[in-house]
Amino acid sequence: MGGHQDAATEFQVQGLELDWTCVTWDADLRFAGGGWTYHDFRGKRWCNIANAQNRHYLRNAYRVLLTRARQGMVIFVPPGDRSDPSRPPEYYDSTFQYLSEVGIPVIDG
I want to staple 8 with a disulfide (CB 3.0 to 4.6 A). Which of 12, 60, 62, 88 is the partner? Predict the structure, then answer.
């Protein structure tokens, strides 16, 4: 049964069908205020992505990652860290809440 496990980017999984995947949802694409916000990490902080083409590119990267699994997928939304100004919990909490509200089951662990 020796399965193979590797980490891969959206570029590396493009066109693949994988049995199981685990996708980490970072603060670059956040659900906030009833819609999605788009961000790029530059230097020591997150910046809003204003360019429509760059927003489309980010959305597409998540689409690729979320459509590779054949049998199942885990989406991991980090809890954030109050001691790290680049990862405050509020960057992640609303996305986690949205994903659970649309029916993605929460795994307690």
Answer: 12
Condensed to tens digits (0 to 9), the pLDDT of residues 6-23 reads 666 665 666 677 888 899
Amino acid at 5: Q
Residue 3: inside a domain, yes or no? no
Calculate the average pLDDT of the chain. 89
Amino acid in position 29:
L
**Global pTM value:** 0.82
**Token couple for 75:** 């989406």
Q: Write the DSSP symbol of residue 104.
A: P
* Radius of gyration of the chain from its Cα atoms, rounded to whole angstroms: 15
Q: Which two tokens stand for residue 77?
A: 């939304």
What domain count does the chain have? 1
Residue 42 within a domain: yes
